[in-house]
Amino acid sequence: MNTAVAPVTVYVPADSAALAAGADAVVTALQTGCAQRGLAMALVRNSSRGMFWLEPLVEVATPAGRVAYGPVTPEDVPGLLDAGMLQGGAHALRHGITEQIPFLALQERLTFRRMGVTDPLSLSDYAAHEGWAGLRRAVTLDSAALVHEVTHSGLRGRGGAAFPAGIKWKTVAGAVSAQKYVVCNADEGDSGTYSDRMTMEGDPYMLIEGMTIAALAVGASMGYVYIRSEYPHAVAAMSEAIARATAAGFLGDDVLGSGKRFHLEVRKAAGAYVCGEETAMLESLEGRRGIVRAKPPLPALQGLFGQPTVINNVITFASVPIILSRGADFYRGYGMGRSHGTLPFQLGGDIRHGGLVEKAFGLTLRELLYGFGGGTRSGRPIKAVQVGGPLGAYVPESQWDVPMDYEAYAAMGAALGHGGIVVHSDKADMAKLARYAMEFCALESCGKCTPCRIGSTRGVEVIDRILVGSHREQQVELLRDLCDTMLNGSLCAMGGMTPYPVLSALNHYPEDFGLVPAVAAAPDPQLA
């Protein structure tokens, strides 16, 4: 008679966020502790769910659902096992059923619905959770129908520009060429952003599926994922996922028996922030230094190697499978105004509950900061919030109740960008942060255009003169004039958006520049 006890499934993330928090050491402690106690454990290395303050997060499968414990250290493991963790037992680190934790339960996870749930490289896990459903439908549709689905869904570029994805796809589909490409820009360089990394490490097949659907829609046969060089775990995960998907027939010469060819390869980025701009990325992919190209021609018509090319961000492509599997109307039903679907907001900086929050457009920054983030980790008041990366505007409390959608933020001189949210307490010096924005631009500029290359250098000098009190009123006027030149004369967003953090800091926090509000002058009409 077989009396062996079935092993209990335990999940410990293996993505870079969890690894940085010590997840591997926790796994070793769990294996040792279970062996010493004669406990049967089946270990699954999933990915983080995005609740980073709880990492390493350990989940245990129980009849009632997966029970979460965290943050777990190796020293906690013996006590957890003795308390009956494998049966979901009570402990100070127990948070109950994972999906019922308010941080997760209050989200609308469409793109990130599998994150932390599955084994990222398991084809069977992916298929069991709606994986490939979008691609299976896509192979039954022609190009026009596929483009219509994406257009009607209202999906816009999630990399920051917010350009309608369907229009870009339609342009490439209509171009006549024997060779077309699909390129994913995964050079995620904005401070406080990590949704691309989470996707590639935690659900790589979703990105592969989205890019393959794009290829079918536009008639492309080759694709590249251009991944940030500082993301070795993402590079490894994507490379392995592509190999497995190819072997299983989801990529290759005959995608799902459709007779359509699509091959995908990973390319490591050059380590330059400006390569987040699509034409600089193309230069890098072609083996040259990443320098912004003048437009026209548009990359959609003359992109990689001079051929028609679809270029989208990771989250844009990753949003496509659910649009195809559940229909454009389903996705379009989320959001507000012209901002349809969801955006993964990424909370960072001085925030108590840092992590990823996927919500439909229309929530407010205040809801994010306090409803999800729980206020500052330091316990100090929030002074400013930078939205949209290092070139995003600093948003003061007076604007925290503005609905977060593309048009509403553009109207107040800000941008949602890639969804990065960096919180600063009342200890922040906004003048120094404004100076940092100019210095960052000077360091990262590709040098192609004068407003960005020279303007950022002059910007640092002007701010320095303001800070030492040298003819402040005249220098403030000069700084505004310089920002206007960069905003309207730069070749790309590198120089064109640097004025956002500078002018927002100047407009909303004049005292940090040694100014009284009256001296700060009226806000720039383009950056109120």
Write a brief caption for the model.
The protein has helices at residues 16-20, 23-37, 77-82, 102-105, 123-128, 133-138, 143-153, 165-174, 195-202, 204-218, 232-247, 278-285, 314-326, 328-332, 365-372, 406-411, 430-444, 450-467, 472-489, 493-497, 499-508; strands at 8-11, 41-44, 58-62, 65-69, 94-97, 181-186, 222-227, 263-268, 309-313, 335-336, 339-340, 342-349, 355-360, 382-387, 394-395, 420-425. The protein contains 21 helices and 16 strands.
Q: Kindly, what is the distance between the CA atoms of the first and last residues, rounded to a whole number of angstroms?
A: 77 Å
**Radius of gyration based on Cα positions:** 24 Å
Query: Which term fits the overall shape?
Result: globular
Q: Uncertain runs with pLDDT below 50, 5 residues or more? A: none
Beta-strand percentage range: 5-15%
Strand order of the largest sheet: 2-1-3-4-5
Proportion of residues in helical segments:
25-40%
What is the averaged pLDDT score? 94
Give the oligomeric state: single chain
The biggest sheet amounts to:
5 strands, mixed
Counting H and I runs of at least 4 residues, what is the number of helices? Answer: 21
The strand count comes to: 16
Question: Which structural class should the secondary elements be placed in?
Answer: alpha/beta
